[in-house]
Write a structure and sequence with these properties.
By secondary structure, the chain is mainly alpha-helical. The chain is built from eleven helices and nine strands. The chain folds into two domains: about 140 residues, Cytochrome Bc1 Complex, Chain D, domain 2, CATH 1.10.760; about 90 residues, Cytochrome c-like domain (Cytochrome Bc1 Complex, Chain D, domain 2). It has a three-stranded mixed β-sheet. A two-stranded antiparallel ribbon has the order 1-2. A two-stranded antiparallel ribbon has the order 3-4. A hairpin with a 4-residue loop joins strand 3 and strand 4. The structure holds heme C (HEC) (2 copies).
Length: about 270
């Protein structure tokens, strides 16, 4: 009996040792993995937390379903609005005119006296320069224009301004990020700062970076905006989500974008 017990004990401890070694080996692999352009200092794009299959879809423009939205955005670029003007009337060379735009938003806007997201900037152009109506953040037209503009910042480093007039809004966004909320009483940081790489339900948690937005969600068969993602994450902790385009989310977007400073533009990134 005594003998049986110690045999079992030995078995258990060798299994335990085995798993420690496996975890050790995995940890070494994680440390040694060179993520190339997808990592800057200790910051890693969501790309690096995806499966090989999902990464392969993102890497190949012919397979990446987000590219159909980009193509739609390209044709919208030269589609005339109510006053006969199109984006192309004034921005004839989007490769040049929209270069670096997406990685530098959101910004402080003097006219509004607060933060403006790129969607809101596009709406300003639609309404004021073309006589069209404003679009919702996740409308087909907006997501098409956003993914198209986003491709003009591919591989350019995320670089938002957080000093001067932008600073008070940045601080508000930062406070939101660390505030616990919802029935689960969790902050963004509890998941995306404390637990990247760990599993939550069926998902591997990432750092919650936004350098690839709008990202194409395989689950939805369409792209989604940053603010839609924020809403989803607020709902996961059973907190009341804010509206897309709310000041709360625009400030939060500025903070989250800054967290990913230096990461490359990857629009349209592909996610589960
Ligand atoms: C009548 C001319 C005109 C039209 C039409 C127009 N734009 Fe603009 N756009 C401008 C000018 C001028 C600026 C820079 C000054 C300003 O903000 O008004 C600008 C600025 C922008 C910016 C900000 C760039 C930056 O560096 O911050 C974006 C983004 C933009 N336009 C996108 C669009 C899109 C998308 C469309 C079509 C839906 C469009 N524009 C239609 C003239 C136009
Ligand atoms: C309970 C855990 C949890 C909390 C709290 C949470 N998220 Fe998430 N978030 C997730 C999961 C799960 C995903 C999908 C997998 C991933 O990319 O991490 C996700 C994805 C994201 C993404 C997409 C990243 C990408 O590369 O596509 C962003 C951005 C994000 N979250 C931001 C936030 C922000 C901002 C907050 C706070 C308002 C927040 N999250 C709070 C669990 C959480």
């Amino acid at each position: 009996m005594e003998n049986e017990k110690s045999k079992l004990g030995w078995k258990l401890s060798s299994i335990a040792l085995g798993s420690v070694l496996m975890i050790g080996a995995m940890a070494v692999e994680v440390i040694a993995k060179d993520w190339g352009k997808h990592q800057v200092d200790n910051r890693r794009s969501g790309y690096t937390y995806m499966t090989d299959e999902t990464r392969a879809v993102q890497d190949d423009d012919f397979e990446n379903p987000g590219m159909l939205w980009v193509e739609n955005g390209e044709s919208l670029w030269s589609t005339a609005g109510a006053n006969g003007k199109s984006c192309a009337s004034c921005h004839a060379d989007p490769d040049k005119d929209m270069k670096g735009v997406s990685v530098s938003y959101p910004r402080y806007d003097k006219k509004l006296g607060k933060i403006i997201t790129l969607e809101q900037m596009v709406n300003r152009e639609l309404v004021e320069k073309m006589g069209d109506k404003a679009e919702k953040f996740d409308s087909k037209k907006m997501l098409s224009l956003m993914t198209f503009i986003g491709t003009k910042s591919r591989d350019m480093p995320v670089n938002v301004k957080i000093d001067g007039d932008a600073n008070p809004f940045f601080e508000k966004g930062k406070a939101f990020y660390y505030e616990r909320r919802g029935q689960l009483d969790m902050s963004c940081a509890n998941c995306h700062e404390d637990n990247p790489g760990n599993m939550i339900r069926a998902n591997t948690l990432s750092e919650g970076q936004i350098n690839g937005f709008p990202t194409y969600r395989l689950k939805w068969q369409k792209p989604g905006s940053v603010h839609r993602r924020f809403k989803g994450c607020n709902k996961q902790v059973r907190a009341k989500p804010y509206k897309a385009g709310s000041d709360e989310y625009s400030n939060l977007e500025l903070y989250v974008k800054w967290r990913g400073r230096g990461l490359p533009g990857e629009t349209p990134a592909v996610r589960n």
